[in-house]
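User: Hey, my collaborator sent me this sequence without any context and asked if I could get a structure. I don't really work with proteins. Can you help?
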Amino acid sequence: MNHGHTYREQIDARDAGRAVLAHLGERFGRATPSTWQARIETGQVKLDDAPTTAGALLRAGQWLCWDRPPWTEPPVPLDTAVLYEDALLLAVAKPRGLPTMPAGGLYLEHTLLAVVRRRAPEASPMHRLGRDTSGLVLFARTAAAARVVQAAFRARQIGKVYRALCSGHPVADALTIDVPIGEVAHPLLGTVHAASPGGRPSRSHVRVLERRGGGGLPPCALVEVTIETGRPHQIRIHLAHAGHPLVGDPLFGPGGLPLPGTRALPGDPGYLLHAGRLELDHPVSKARLVIECPPPPALRLGAGRT
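Assistant: No problem. I've predicted the 3D structure and written it out in structure-token form, which is a compact way to encode the shape of the chain:
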């Protein structure tokens, strides 16, 4: 059991005039209207810190709060390692299966953020990895350091290098993938990021490290991917678009689109992807930092040999 959580939301002009029950049903659609009705009647939902009713009409500027009682979170691996630490920055290794941030109404304390803040309460993540992606995550320990690092990310001055296991054998030893990424239809979520002609510009550089397979085993390749942009699920989408989706990826198929008829979600497990290296200028000293996180066994050179 975790310690529960209070969700706080300030009502803006777009939601003014709506009833509390209708708003909560759309905002937190995983729960049914009858569930929200019961929560309102038991005082779990407050408007400007006072109990409210299902039919109360919202006004712009009000604070709507839901005091969610403690719940049991799904088990996840919680072992992490410090890769770099000083007064301004903290880099840690995230295990595969651990969410970076609270998500989906399931994970609150079973997250990398919660683990890191037990060590450094002031730390804020500068980027995030998908739940099934392992590797290096950088945190800033001061607001000033965070501003510098975020500006460097926006200016594409931070190098990000990954390893992945993709299906098939790329014809070339190196390739660059320029495919825009935007939102496309998804049967459960409404939309999901995928290859889209009208999406945002995205670029990945792929280098083949090792070709595997043979002897009755399906062909696959260990690749190193350097990304210039950081779009959601970029590596999974780009390699799938190139005809080499990540081995075990339940969502993205050829063309960089959701597989036909899939009900898989972006966070569903199966693929192998690891954030192995981050290069950046220190926010104060300006010295170039190269921080590395060793890959898991399946993504090491020679792991595919029998």
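In plain terms: Helices lie at 20-27, 33-41, 112-119, 143-154, 234-241. You can pass these tokens on to your collaborator as they are.
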